[in-house]
Amino acid sequence: MLIAYKKFWKNFKQFDGKSSRSDYWWAFLVNTLIRALIILSGTFMQVAQMMARVDTHTSKNLSDQVQTAMDYVIAHPTFSVQILQGIGIVFSLVIMIPVTTLTARRLQDIGISGALAYALPAIYLLNAASELVPTNAVAAVLVNFGRLYAFFLLIMCIRKSDSVRPREQF
Predict the structure, then answer these.
(1) Quick check: is 170 in a domain?
(2) For a tag site, which of 14, 53, 59, 78 has the least CB within 10 Å?
(3) pTM of the model
């Protein structure tokens, strides 16, 4: 796993060539685990902030208190949550080019043009922008279309390499 992740960073400028399925998916897994760690840390901080705002010793309806606390926490994130959101955005922007080149090489390995991966930086930038500023309906559609396209590429990368041929039947 670590060898594949080192290759992910070492070959970040290489658009041509091929990438094995295991190299692609190990890098994908490590990047996903890092993102999950960042997101979960922020979520735990927000839950802790929310629970501190709920008073269980009053006669007020508990579900109303939780809803009010949740609305407040979402509207007023703490500095540490904002820092974690910033770290998540920076991480996404840092891995943008290596993910693009790895995806291009993986697509070439399965016999599909690597040029399909060249839209990934725009998708990463759209996602980062949607995290930073409130989005309207048109921007939300663009962001979701980009995510759908990235998912489409992800599904295509599951295929086996063109160089691997099934065994002939005897």
Answers:
(1) no
(2) 59
(3) 0.77
